[in-house]
């Protein structure tokens, strides 16, 4: 099997396409090809064998070629002028002309270098800058997401336009374009947010001449509304919640590891990334619990550390699928984290199972939150692991990681509705002392225990 087949298999699992593809035309020597190289609209082929080492060499050559192609026109022109003078006068540094001294030394100072002011140039610089944040300020998946979403602007804009064409009218036209697309309001808002990120980044660069309108960051200025006739959005979303029958049917059809992940989605309000980032240190299986702080918010003081009680089915599923990795609880077959594997598996599985193809995994968490809130209006925030907002909880109460009886009861009620708990938690009612005394007297008169008397009422 050639190496490109292996790359395609990995792409199916992770959802990330390889940078280069294997290409061979007729009897010609094959090579690794990049379509639309450096935005030129043309393909470029790097001739290396169809092996792992060949792919790595092709990638290295591609990165060098991309770096050369990304140099500005001013930099290339400067090099050409220096080369011309050197060839003409055959001098390495200075040329003596009567009355003049011409210095041929290239000006390498970044502060004095004139940079391009095209939209395309600054977009390229922005993506390079964001790529450097991976690992420190940004997760790799977040970088890929931002790079994907900025394409909507890249495809719409004229990349040769001067960056200063981005003014109020320009922004309105791009907003109008996004609003015309057949996308949900949330998707349109995400694309516009990434456009905002790019333009505010560019405007903050010392060498960039972009000046944004003062009210550009006002959230309410560029809304995306549901087109007329789409109906009540919240009611539509409520119809997408999972029923007990649907979830039970799903669990009976899927592999053991996926069954485990989806139980965590419902039991603990987890997302894909929470399952993927779960550490052995988060498990308290002897107590039947997981103690976890949401991955997306774990650098914030306002994010609570929640102690989740596990249903018996969830605990058994974890024990059956736990990995021996020193850090992560779950790994895929290739020994990698499972976030992308869950997403790509669900996409493939839905295509083959039409009765449930309209369902979404993120609505398991929303289903759980809805039922938890129904039993206790204050507990959905803790179930979701969302940020604390009350000053008393933020500044004075530090019960993080400790069991919370109200949350335990709410999750038990959720489990009861989905068939994972045999009976709902008992409800306790506090009675005034005078009423309790009167009831005890009545029970004595009848010669029966108080509990039996209360059952007759």
From TrEMBL:
Family matches, as Gene3D superfamilies: 1.10.150.130, Intergrase catalytic core
Record bears the keyword DNA-binding: yes
Top-level taxon in the UniProt lineage: Bacteria
Gene name of the record: xerC_2
Swiss-Prot/TrEMBL keywords: DNA recombination, DNA-binding
Any GO BP annotation: DNA recombination
Tyr recombinase domain: residues covered: 256-379
UniProt-recorded Gene Ontology molecular function terms: DNA binding
Protein name: Tyrosine recombinase XerC
